[in-house]
Each structure stands twice: as C-alpha cells, then as structure tokens.
Design goal:
This protein is mainly beta. The protein is built from 5 helices and 46 strands.
Length: about 750
Amino acid sequence: MKKLGFLLFLPSLSWGVSFLHSTHDHKVFGASATAYLVPDGYTTPYQTEAPAQVPYHKSGLASGFWIYIITNSMSTSSTITLRINGADASQTITIPGGTTGPLQDLAHIDFINAGDLINFKLITGTGGTIELNAENFVFTTPSDGMTKFLATGAGGPTGVTNGFADFYTSPANIMGSGAGNLTFQTEGPAIYQMKTAGTFENFAVYITSNTRSVDIPIRVRKNGSNTALTVTIPAGDTGLFEDTTHSFSVVNGDSVTYSWGSSAGDDGHFIGASYVSSEFVTTNGAMEYPVSNPGKQLSGSNDNVTTFSGPLGFDSLGNTYGIPSGMNGIVSHFHFYSDTSTLAASTTFTLRKNGVNGNSTITVPRGGWGYYEDTTHTDVIVSTDIVDYRVTSGAGIGSLDVNSMGAMVTATIPLRGPSDTLPPLQVFPSNNIWNTPIDSAPISSNNAQWMDSINGHTLHTFHADFGSAFDGKWNGIPYNIIYSTTPYLPVIWDPVSNFATESDTLPANGLPFPPDIICQGDPAPTDVNGDRHCLLVQVSSSSIFETFGSSRQVSGSSWTIVALSTWALNSNALRPDTWTSADAAGLPIFPALVKWQEVNSADEINHALRFTLALTHGPHLWPARHDANSGGSLNPPFGMRVRMKADIDISGFSAMNQKIFRAMKKYGMFLADNGGDWYVQGAPNLNWNDTDLNEWRTLVPADTFEVVDESTWIVAPNSGEANASPTTAATAAVIRGQGTISGYGTILLH
C-alpha cells in the first residue's frame, strides 16, 4: 500500500516548489480505456472526471510532468495528460507500446490559477495492458510555499458499523476500504507529526457515495482537538465540498489528522470520498516531506527495499522504482510512526541516494512501536539524486505496521522559476545615460524619417515581449541572481560560430552558472533557434555576465557560448566601439528589462527600457556600439531612443501598465536589437498579468512614440556618463552614405 502526497518547499528567492505525486497499487489498465486519476495518492481510477478533480487555491506553475510504467504489453501507444478545469493542458506524455520505466515531458509548462481543478487523464492503447506506478509534476508558487496534503483512496471510508464512532485519516494517508482499511477508529495511527511551522487552509472533500441519513462533519484536527477547518456533508449528498474561510497554525511537533463524524442511529450507512485535501502554507524556508505508509506490514526476515521520491510510499511488492528528488536542499528530522510491532528483532529505515545509504536512519527496537525521529543526521540532496528508503526488517517471525513517515527539507539552491527577488543593487551610476530622464529632450530631426520607415513595414502593433509563459517556455529574458558561493563552470567558445573577437575574455575558471540556471528558451528542451541569452547578476562583485548563444553540454558540467559581455555596474564604461555584446547593438540587456519587482514596488521605474525592430541600418548612435544592417539606409540605427508622447492618455490602462508607460514617457526606450517591430523586452515572472500586458496592442506606435535627440548628453564617446547640463541639441540630420565622417567613430548627430 502506498501514499502519495504533494510536496512543496519554499526555497530562497521566495519561491515554493513542490512535487505532486500520484501512486497506484500497481493499477493495471486494459486496452482502449479512458480513466481519470486524482493527481495525488493511491486511488481508484474514475470513469467520470469530477471525482478526480482536485481544487488548487494557490496560483503557480506546473512543469516536469512524468510517469513511471511498470509493465506494458500494449501494441499501440497510450497517453497521459495533465488536465486543468476539464481541458487538456500542455503537458502530455505518449507511452509507446511496450515501453516501461520513467517518461517525462520537459517541453511544456502550464499555469495553474487559484481555483483551478487539476487531474490526470489516461487513454490506453490497444492489444494488451499497461501497469502504472506513479505520475508526477513539479508545482512552483511565486510567493508562499505550499504542501498539498491529500488523503486519497478507493472510495474512502466505508462499512461504518458503529454510529457513535468517529473515524480518522492521516492527511498524509490513503483511505482504502474493505481489507486493509486505512481509516482508523482511533486517532493514533492516523497522526502526522509536523516538522515545519505554517498554516493549514483551504479544506476540500469530494464525496463519491453517501447513504448517511444525517449530516456528517469532516474536520481537520490538531493535537487531538477539532479546528475550525471543517466541511459538513448533508445527508445523502455527493460532490465537492470546501471550507476556504477558516485556517489554523501549527508548529514543529504538532499532530494533524482528518476525522469523519458519525451519529447515533446511523449504523450500516456509508460515505465514500475520492480525496480529502488541505493546503499547508509555510514562509520559513522549509517544507514538509511526508511519506505515509499506513497499514503496510513488514514481516519475517525480509530485506525490503522500498522507494519513494518525496511522498511516494511503500511498493507492496517490495520493488524499487527510484525517481529524482527534484529539489536541492537538506533533509533532516526523518521521523516514523508505528502502532504495532511483533517483530523479534529490530528494524532499520535508511534514506538512500543513488543506491547508496545516506546519513538519516531510524532503528526501531524489537517489539517497538510509537514515534521515532532522527534528530542528529542530515542528508544533502540535489534535483537529480535518485532518492529512496531502504527498510530492513528484523529476523524471525512477526510484523511491523508502518503508519507514517516524514522529514523536513530546507532548500539550499532551489529548483525554481524565474527570480522573484531583486536585491538592492545600483545598476550603473546615477549619472549614466540609462538612468537619465529624457522627458524634456528635444525631438530628433530624424523623427519623421525614421518613424515613417518603421511604419512602412510594420503591422503597427505595440507588444510586451515578456510575461509569464508562452508556447511552453518562459516568456521573456530571465536573469539569475548569483553570489560569491555560486560555482564556476568551464565555458568554451562555440566551435562553429562565435563573436570571440568582439567579446570579453573568458575567465580561466569559467563563468558562475548556477546548477538551476534559467536562460532564454527554458525550460528544456531549450529553443535552439532563439538567442539563448543567459544573464548572471553577481551581487558580490556588482557585475553582470551576459551570454548569447548559450548551450549547456550533455554532462551539464560545461557550456559553450557565442558571445560574452561583462558589465561593471559601478562604471560608466562602454564596450569598444564596433563591438557587439549579448545583443546586436553592443548594449547591456539586464538593466533595460521590464522587471516585475520594479512594477510591484512602491517606487517608479527609473531607467530606460529596450525594444527591437525588424529593419535597422548603421551607423549606430551613442551609447550603442555595433550595427546590423538588416534594412536600408532610411531605416533607424541601433541606439535610437524613443519616448512615449507626453499627451498619450494612459488612464484607461491597469496600474501595472501605467507604471511601465510612465517610465516610457520619462526615460524612453533604446533600439537594442533586431526582432519583432515594437517588441519591448522584459523578464518573465509568474506574477505578470498576461491579459493586461496584451492591452499594449491597443496602442498605435506611430501615434504614440517620438524619437528624441540626446547627442548633447554625451560627455565622452566611450562613456555612458550623461551631461548634467546638456546644451541646445544639434539640428543636423544623421549623415548617410558619406565616405568619411570626421571626429569620433560613433556618429554623434541625431
């Protein structure tokens, strides 16, 4: 018998990441069948979808969907798909006929909004049977950590024969029915002891059958007493029941159970549920790691090896199905509860990594029962470690009942989505041109020509080239906050094509690529046709490493890149003239991105932004350093700076968009690369409201923007410092097609 559970941790950078596990006691499915599965727990597959749909009350990201197949005699392929609100999500796995072992969809990600209903849908192939052990996906929340505690089972508690008796289920249990019933008439075997402080909330129950003649309360209990978190099931009613109003807090050592009420005179009546669910929210950087195995008996002198990643439970056949831990952190406080032991010798439980015993271990003495905990040892795990537990039962006759297991995991390097945290960091000196308002700058004499040339080939739409996700990838250019402890990995130039002669020198010890780095085009498999920018913001040195054409090698321990630019955030220095950078214009990327943290703060955005056009032509304008002549001589150059016109009415847009548009009016935007016309770059984040960002399309760029002349801000051609007292702007147009331009290599006239 097995338990599954949702596990989630709150890593640094205020992200919560969890694995959602579904295990089946070797459920065998026949040919040409359709089944709906609860996305957590040992469960009976359902013919209809509603009993399998579990509500989620936190918004987050679902990714890394995978499945483990035990046996497969199908002659054609089967599929299993993540479902959101009764519709297929992006993540799906095709299981070829005869294929066994783990399969995973790394190409897609899906977003779960608060209130969504989640389940899995299995469609089997023809000509045989297929046997499943587990399904899994990673769930990432943008702020709180959340552990989804589900009790699931084959119909829930049934066969009630005493109307006066309450029944108890562990929040990290399976419920079962008939033989091996996992709902108990006493509370002790159902206890799950917490190791992490947090709050329980959002209680949900799906009732599949109900012949009870009276209303039945189902409660969450703490330390043997009822809490306010409860639902009452009216006599005979079925369906989904929720309490989203009440909550209660717990600390280390508190015990939690679910209880099912009874009533006198109701003997012989039944109630069944597909699941009982609550959400446990934590903000202390740790997570619950529940592993429940209620009713599992270890007997005789067997050397049993049982495997679970996070909350996966005992495999009743004693087989091993190792799966990745999916997280980077420290496992501690490994604990165990048994209510019965008749073994003649001691039994040992040991955490294992990659087939080798770890440090965390519990020894249950001969005949011992009750609660045991290893408070001494810890184990470090990374996301690729195969984690299981080895259970060695004592010799001789007898048995040991395993009611629950668990541990605490504290994240070190989180498996995460794009950064939610932007540490205090001065990005270039305050007198840098990126940080200089241009709302009073004169209009460029080339304004009409360049705007006309753009309007001649564009579709006249304005576009936020960032958001949450798009087409299964993070939508935007992610950045990674790194520290002095971030490991350096070997990096070499792409042997086929590179800009090594216009890049900064590669450090001998490589670049600080964190193990969980997120680059443009992630998650895997990465978009090899994209720019594949990797942005590394090193706080300790106040510097930025920006790479282009970045590719992680198969081993994961080294990288190849096409271009590298390094920026000192405390300096006004520009790159050598005519040199490119990680973008075509030779400009930095990170300082110009629209970032959620800036939009969500109380302060205004105080820097210029960046955008792209399909057609450009040199010579570039300061502070740009490089050209890409994708268009004709009438097209604008890199370094052109535009601003939103002061009289554009933005009052009808959301507060989020208004803040971004105010920055466009005050600081403007630099033309920084070739790409979609009027595409503005930003960093992806789960918090972006994509619907709001799509409202940008209602603006017509030709009517909204104007080109400014910032030539008189230049202090020196190789410096980004802006003149504190710019003089009257030059009136001459940019000279095109001349053989020689005297003066600086960069054209200064706008």
